[in-house]
Amino acid sequence: MIEDAILSFYERILRMQCRHIPSHIAIIQDGNRRFARTRNMPRSEGHRAGANRTEEMLSWARDLGIKHITLYSFSTENFNRDSEEVQDLFCLFKDKLSRVISDPRVHRDGIRVQVVGDRSLLPPDLQEAIARAEEATKHYDKYFLNVALAYGGRNEIVRAAQRIIGGVSRGEVSLQDITPEFVESQLHEGQNIPPVDLIIRTGNEYRTSNFLPWLANGHESAVYFCAPYWPRFRKIDLLRAIRTYSQRIDAMGKSSC
Hints:
Oligomer: single chain
Order of helices and strands: HEHHEHHEHEHHEEH
CATH class: Alpha Beta
């Protein structure tokens, strides 16, 4: 009880220090496998624990008024993992996306679910679950949950370049049309994803791993690295990350005076 009271008090202190709330947070959810290993659990249970923590984190984010969340859930490099783990992950993604359709929180809070990445690399049943989740939430615009599956930042830029070149060859796009804003509009299958304000990476890793390079690195987003494995990520970790972003905004304001 005393520990809970101290934690609650600390959360309130952190919340007061978060003078600026980011609109778009991108999260690299690292450490599910290491979490499972430290507890002698199957890797699949570590991933499921991470998925459960994701649901809690989304609730915290909505309470704070964060409109856009992008999750780095499965990279193109993750296809190199053993086939059993990859299939377990695909089943987990399919299960969670299928539940979107009937989840009352999604419809109550007006959450639009979108998947970014090369979905052609995903199995057909997962592609179908993605399409159903996107269709069921396409009219919502209060909150946005973007899930990066089969995603790689360089691959995304290459695919955008291919679309632009195709438009030029068909006479639909002129060279004068190709501005930074136009290139940005061609990323992520044309889905409207705003620049990233803050990147969070868990698991004591200090790299951004080719995640949203145009929207994050290109816009100089704040970055927060923390030690807990993703299943152990807490609300105070989220608030500490937002405090880092808030401090950066304050510092930028002072330097511009």
